[in-house]
């Protein structure tokens, strides 16, 4: 096919990056649609009066950006609804490196050696004293009763989530819980609202389920009530998915007044809410969930993954009365039931205070890394929570996010750009997400900050022109 990228070509920068950005803009404007086959390298090179090597580099860059997919023997295609914006660590882009990069790209709790010791001690004790139902479980789709009872008490007393054990569903992590809630409420083609910048897992899920995901404007506290009201009037969505505590990637967190205002909008429109509260334990007590304000029209999702150890994928879905019989078939179809062994560990940790202790320690460790990051990156504009997992860092004028990401990777550092978190098409914010927990070793973490600080203080390296 013949495509005209000329209107989208920037007037500066390396030619291959200019072509990649032109492809991105053409996709955002709708001139290139998912499933479109791009011209062969030689044809586009002739059209743009550049070398074939330049087009090859441009296509390779576009693939790294998640815009296109190269298929052997078939050509290069604009990505379809299979999450083309997965982050590099999910695509395994770094596997070819001889030495693994310092990872400041992945949302991960800090796991010092003491966490591993607790985990092993629990497993040793369970070897002798595990509840017999953990091995024999087959029919309790929502989860074993003693595990749901303990979780329900904890959800109510610690997080303020309304409900009883009959309203709780055990699921394999928060992502599974969000999927179950959406599948309960939404059908193919329905509109779902969320924050304009949102977790890439939700974006991928919307594509998988065929939903129309629409972004709502946000500020430093997350979704803005007036913008949410306008979007509800415009789209009449069946569901709104929100993360009121430490929104990924910005860290935006609603105070209780903002939560009151958002709840009022949803109540007035009668719109279902799915609250992703996976970061609740990373905040000090005092914030009450949106679900507590809208108990009859809200699904609440949380897990222990972000505040304890990442391998403990114990997720908890709280379902409003009258909806459980719709949710359980989706759970049965996707995993039959959550893994009882995982929840037996979680049950013991909830009972003996380990969860609260690890969450408190996680907040302390993250606070230390927040301070260290601000020291290394002093002078740069950034947003974060005092005990947040990320820094939302604005780039100095000379850098573009994808250029910084690629240069950092060449120097042994992995970071994330805003592209993967964008719900709607448009120019991404000139920011990067710096994650604080991906490296357990404090020295490697500090090394990564040193690399990043140096890069931010330099001009982007000149690129060799390919003729």
Structure description:
- It is a single chain.
- The protein has 467 residues and is an alpha/beta fold.
- It folds into three domains: 75 residues, Winged helix-like DNA-binding domain superfamily/Winged helix DNA-binding domain (Arc Repressor Mutant, subunit A); 128 residues, Aspartate Aminotransferase, domain 1 (Alpha-Beta Complex); 240 residues, Type I PLP-dependent aspartate aminotransferase-like (Major domain) (Aspartate Aminotransferase, domain 2).
- It is 43% helix and 13% strand.
- It contains 17 helices and 17 strands.
- Strands 4-12-11-10-9-5-6 form a seven-stranded mixed β-sheet, sandwiched between helices. It has a four-stranded antiparallel β-sheet with strand order 13-14-17-16, covered by helices on one side.
- Helix 9 links the parallel strand 5 and strand 6.
- Helix 8 packs parallel to helix 9, helix 8 packs across helix 13 and helix 10 packs parallel to helix 11.
- The longest helix is centred in the last third of the chain and has 23 residues.
- It is globular and about 70 Å long.
- The two termini are 24 Å apart.
- One of its GO terms (molecular function) is DNA binding.
- It comes from Chromohalobacter marismortui.
- Pfam families: Aminotran_1_2, GntR.
- This is GntR family transcriptional regulator.
- Keywords: DNA-binding, Pyridoxal phosphate, Transcription, Transcription regulation.
């Amino acid at each position: 096919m013949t495509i005209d990228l000329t209107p989208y070509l920037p007037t500066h920068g390396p030619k291959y990056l200019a072509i990649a950005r032109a492809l991105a803009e053409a996709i955002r404007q709708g001139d290139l649609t998912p499933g479109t086959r791009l011209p062969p390298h030689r044809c586009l090179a002739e059209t743009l009066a550049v070398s074939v090597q330049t087009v090859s580099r441009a296509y390779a860059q576009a693939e790294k950006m998640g815009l296109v997919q190269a298929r052997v023997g078939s050509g290069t295609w604009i990505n379809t609804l299979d999450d083309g914006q997965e982050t590099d660590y999910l695509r395994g882009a770094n596997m070819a490196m001889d030495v693994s990069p310092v990872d400041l790209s992945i949302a991960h709790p800090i796991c010092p050696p003491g966490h591993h010791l607790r985990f092993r001690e629990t497993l040793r004790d369970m070897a002798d004293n595990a509840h017999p139902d953990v091995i024999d479980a087959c029919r309790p789709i929502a989860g074993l009763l003693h595990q749901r009872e303990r979780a329900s008490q904890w959800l109510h007393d610690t997080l303020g989530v309304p409900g009883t054990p009959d309203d709780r569903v055990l699921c394999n992590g928060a992502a599974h819980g969000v999927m179950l809630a959406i599948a309960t409420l939404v059908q193919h083609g329905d509109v779902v609202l969320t924050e304009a910048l949102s977790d890439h897992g939700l974006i991928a899920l919307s594509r998988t389920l065929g939903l129309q995901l629409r972004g709502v404007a946000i500020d430093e506290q997350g979704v803005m009530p007036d913008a949410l009201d306008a979007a509800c009037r415009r789209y009449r969505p069946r569901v709104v998915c929100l993360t009121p505590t430490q929104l990924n990637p910005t860290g935006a967190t609603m105070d209780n007044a903002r939560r009151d205002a958002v709840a009022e909008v949803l109540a007035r429109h009668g719109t279902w809410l799915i609250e992703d509260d996976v970061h609740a334990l990373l905040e000090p007590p005092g914030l009450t969930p949106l679900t507590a304000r809208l108990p009859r029209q809200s699904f609440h999702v949380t897990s222990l993954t972000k505040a304890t150890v990442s391998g403990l994928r114990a997720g908890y879905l709280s379902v409003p009365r009258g909806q459980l019989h719709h949710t359980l078939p989706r759970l049965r179809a996707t995993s039959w039931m959550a893994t009882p062994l995982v929840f037996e560990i979680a049950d013991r940790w909830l009972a003996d205070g380990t969860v609260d202790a690890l969450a408190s320690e996680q907040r302390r460790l993250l606070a230390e890394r927040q301070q260290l990051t601000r020291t290394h990156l002093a002078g740069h504009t950034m947003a974060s929570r005092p005990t947040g997992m990320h820094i939302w860092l604005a780039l100095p004028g000379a850098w573009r996010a994808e250029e910084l990401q690629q240069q950092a990777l060449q120097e042994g550092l992995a970071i994330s750009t805003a592209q993967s978190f964008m719900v709607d098409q448009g120019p991404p914010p000139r920011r990067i997400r710096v994650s604080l927990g991906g490296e357990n070793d404090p020295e490697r973490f500090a090394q990564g900050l040193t690399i990043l600080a140096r890069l931010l203080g330099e001009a982007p390296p000149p690129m060799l022109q390919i003729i």
